[in-house]
Amino acid sequence: MSQILIGAGGWAYFKLPGIDSLEAYSQAFDFVELNSSYYELPANSSASDWRKRVPPDFRFSLRCPRIIVDSYGLKLLPGARGHLERLEEVCRTLEAEVMTVLIGASSPVEESELSVRLREFLGTFDADETVVAVEFRGVRPSKEVFDIMKESGAVHCVDLSSDEPRYQSRLLYSRLFGNGEANVYEFDDGELKEIRKKASEPKFEKSILAFHGVRMYRDAGRVKSFIEKGLFPKITGGVGVDSIREVLSEDARFPTNKSNLLKDQGWKVFQETGEVRKISTVLEKLPDGEYNSLDDLLTQLRSQQGLLSPK
User: Fold this and answer.
1) Is residue 236 part of a domain?
2) What is d(CA 147, CA 122) in angstroms, rounded to the nearest whole number?
3) CA–CA gap between residue 59 and residue 131 (Å, rounded)
4) Total domain count for the chain?
5) Contact 111, 142 (CB under 8 A)
6) Residues contacting 11, CB < 8 A, separation 6+
7) Spatial separation of the C-alpha atoms in residues 242 and 236, rounded to whole Å
8) Is 63 helix (H, G, I), strand (E, B) or coil?
9) Distance in Å from the first CA to the final CA of the chain
10) Cα–Cα distance between 234 and 257 in angstroms, integer?
11) Buried b (16+ CB within 10 A) or exposed e, 16-26
């Protein structure tokens, strides 16, 4: 079975009373993706401080600064080389496991030039044992591009909940967003089980799962518990309608209707007896019409047999 590391995109929002966020995060998870490096590289002194504040076996990954791709188009001009050298330095200081490169639809790199640019970039980047993972969004790379990545030892970074790497590597690196608008999504039990199943395949020596949804810490914590203990922790005190009350009480606004409930709240999950399910599986069965309050909605749920049935 593949070794699986679980983490999320940053530690800044991981809060425990009286404990430094990074130190608390490093006690809960195996690794962290430094998502902020996409926007601006940290000072190497900051990276050194972070490395000292976590356990020796805690791992970091970084994102390639967007300026290298979006402004320089992966051309290693003098300015880009300066950013690349700083990136390599920070990777070494953090002993980074992975450095991810995002090539998106807005990238200035022409499709006809992508293979040449990527070959030069991958051949130049050198940060000891840091592996490069390349992620594509809104771009359809050619077979030649994937061949270059494979030959260079780079891995194909995908969202494992909806895609799989185009070629086999010893390392799997997955940035997990789910099937929602931007990062507004939360995984249910079935989805997390499937992610774990794919990440555990023996073809991977190591799998790194980086959660990025709005509930990334809870998603990461739940799948980590499932891997280590064989069960998922409960997400609410109640189950069924009582769980739905807890979840919708966070920010649901009334009066509203079925369509708006599905749009605004359907991405969330609730606790049913024995499993966590999408709230959308219940809301989509509601009668059309307006709901004046949360109590009005819950009364409707309780009055109709079968609304909470998975089918």
Assistant:
1) no
2) 12
3) 13
4) 2
5) yes
6) 21, 22, 24, 25, 26, 32
7) 9
8) strand
9) 33
10) 28
11) eeeeeebebbb
Q: What is the extent of the structural domain holding 247?
A: 241-303
Per-residue pLDDT tens for 240-288?
A: 999 999 999 999 999 999 999 999 999 999 999 989 999 999 999 999 9
Using omega within 30 degrees of 0 as the cis cutoff, is the peptide bond preceding 108 cis?
A: no
> What angle do helix axes 78-94 and 44-52 make, rounded to 10 degrees?
20
Phi, psi of 38 (to 5 degrees): -65, -35
280 plus 224 within the same structural domain: no
**Beta bridge partners of residue 270, listed in sequence order:** 277
Question: How far is Cα 170 from Cα 146, in angstroms, rounded to an integer?
Answer: 15
Both 252 and 113 in one domain: the answer is: no
The mean pLDDT of 178-205, rounded to a whole number, is: 95
User: What are 32-50's pLDDT values in tens digits?
Assistant: 999 999 999 999 999 999 9
